[in-house]
Amino acid sequence: MIEIKDIYKSFGSNDVLKGISGKFEAGVTNLIIGGSGSGKTTLLKCMIGLHHPEQGIVEYDGREFTGMNFEEKIEIRKEIGMLFQGSALFDSMTVEENIMFPLNMFTEQSRKEKIERVNFCLERVNLEGKNKLFPAELSGGMKKRVGIARAIAMNPKYLFVDEPNSGLDPKTSIVIDELIKELTEEYNATTIVVTHDMNSVMGIGDYIIFLHEGKKFWEGSNKEIAHTDVQELNDFVFASRFMKAAKGKF
Amino acid sequence: MNFTNFGRYLLLLKAVFRRPEKFKIYLQAIFKQMDFIGVGSLGLISIISTFIGAVMTLQIAFQLVNDFIPKTIIGSVNRDSSILELSPTISAIVLAGKIGSAISSEIGTMRVTEQIDALEIMGINSPGYLILPKIIAGITMVPLLVIISMFLSITGGYLGGTLSGAVSPAEYIQGITTDFNPYTITVALVKAFVFGFIITSVPAYEGFYVKGGALEVAQASTRAVVVSCITILACDYLVTQLLL
């Protein structure tokens, strides 16, 4: 479980996060949603330590992350897997080397064991046999799946996913969403997905927090989101004509 | 502003020299960088050094044409100029362009495509993993390149001088072997060591703190080369002042 308490973050005079709190349980898919510039990615980066909040606490299963020193943070980070918006695969490495990288760094496994783990992870994301390809040879969806394979290579307790559907077609987006949900349940991981994709919200949002102008405006599940009377959330969820037309059918 | 940058540079270096997570992985990265910096630059350094030596011989011959000055002086001036100044400094400036821009753009691209963030999330000390192998490769391979450059520059002087008839082979060889002071090699290698550190660490710093996209990566790359060249020249003066 990850808990955030009263997170504030600003860049110069721009206050991006204004006292965000929330509790993200293990084994369910937690979503952080909101419009562009609402502070979703900044919140995610504060949670994983890429940004330092001016105020507030991030706890990983009761361990206060924000107050830790460099070495202590490294120990927590070994339990974290993350899929970046642009996949962030290492260009100079093959798919196999990308997935094997954390194993090389932090385990004493034999090469055979590592290859087995790589093949298992690739199989898990339906990319068997793509070991020797370079990131430049992969499609956007394949890159995302390799990113997920790399993220799960170390059996993470915490899985962070930043905009998993950006740049993907709707069908591939659903495949990625379902994969994230399956892996969350399989590993009993605490998964936090930052998204503004409504298919993801409706499809996998077990617990959702909605950010607007740096504040938490709403929290609930995908079943509750269609029936909320929070104006800002309605404006976000039912922004398109299609969603407006479909509103009464939820 | 420059003090801020210098402070950040020192803090980055502090992070670079943290204990590596796994020596074996770092060792592999060091060998890879040695190949890139050393073997990859050998051709360029060879061509430049040979021609510089040849041109130097012709210019010395042109400037010292006098019945009172023995032609052997051409060889000894070329030798000392090559060892003390031309080989270390010109090689370093050329390498700052070739290696420095590559390092800056590689790390800068990794920054803007979140690859550095990915390393940090995995619990890896990204400055150490990305920069330390480059610095170690720089401080070992640049002196080796400079030694090769000295040899080729003196050889180039021989070829240029004898082919043009500016100096006879015997006079040139007598010139390069007379009154040789081995301390000049020490000075050159100290310079090469310092330059190797600058050529790798300054561009790495510029790349590591890039913000933005492709344009900013290109700007950082240009800045890396400019700052490296100026720093090399300033350090050249300092080391010469201290050691000679």
Briefly, what is this?
Chain A has 250 residues and is of the alpha/beta class. Helices cover 39% and strands 25% of the residues of chain A. Chain A has helices spanning 40-48, 70-77, 95-106, 111-124, 140-152, 170-187, 198-204, 222-225, 231-237, 241-246; strands at 2-11, 14-24, 29-34, 55-60, 63-64, 80-83, 158-162, 190-195, 207-212, 215-220.
The CATH architecture of the largest domain in chain A is 3-Layer(aba) Sandwich
- Overall structural class of chain B, as computed from helix and strand content, comes to mainly alpha
Taken together, the total number of domains of chain A comes to 2
- Strand segment count of chain A: 10
Task: Please estimate the helix content of chain A.
Answer: 25-40%
Bulk shape of chain B: elongated
Query: What's the CATH class of the largest domain in chain A, please?
Result: Alpha Beta
Model regions low in confidence, pLDDT < 50 over at least 5 residues of chain B: none
Most residues in contact: chain pair = A-B, 24 and 16 residues
Helix and strand element order of chain A: EEEHEEHEHHHEHEHEEHHH
Number of domains of chain B: 1
Please work out how many helical segments of chain A DSSP would assign.
Answer: 10
Main sheet characteristics of chain A? 6 strands, mixed
Compute the separation of the termini of chain B in Å.
34 Å
Question: How large a portion of the residues of chain A is in β-strands, by DSSP E?
Answer: 15-25%
Quaternary state reads heterodimer
Overall shape of chain A: it is: globular
The count of helical stretches of chain B stands at 8
Notable features of this structure?
heterodimer, A: 250 residues, alpha/beta, Rossmann fold, 2 domains, 6-stranded mixed sheet, 4-stranded antiparallel sheet, 10 helices, globular, B: 244 residues, mainly alpha, 8 helices, 85% helix, elongated
Describe the structure.
The complex is a heterodimer of chains A (250) and B (244). Chain A has 250 residues and is α/β, with parallel strands linked by helices. Chain A folds into two domains: 170 residues, P-loop containing nucleotide triphosphate hydrolases (Rossmann fold), CATH 3.40.50.300; 70 residues, no CATH class. Chain A has a six-stranded mixed β-sheet with strand order 6-7-8-3-9-10, sandwiched between helices. In chain A, α6 links the parallel β7 and β8. The radius of gyration of chain A is 18 Å and the shape is globular. The two termini of chain A are 30 Å apart. With 244 residues, chain B is mainly α. Chain B has one domain. Chain B is elongated. The two termini of chain B are 34 Å apart. Chains A and B meet through α2 and α3 of A and α4 of B.
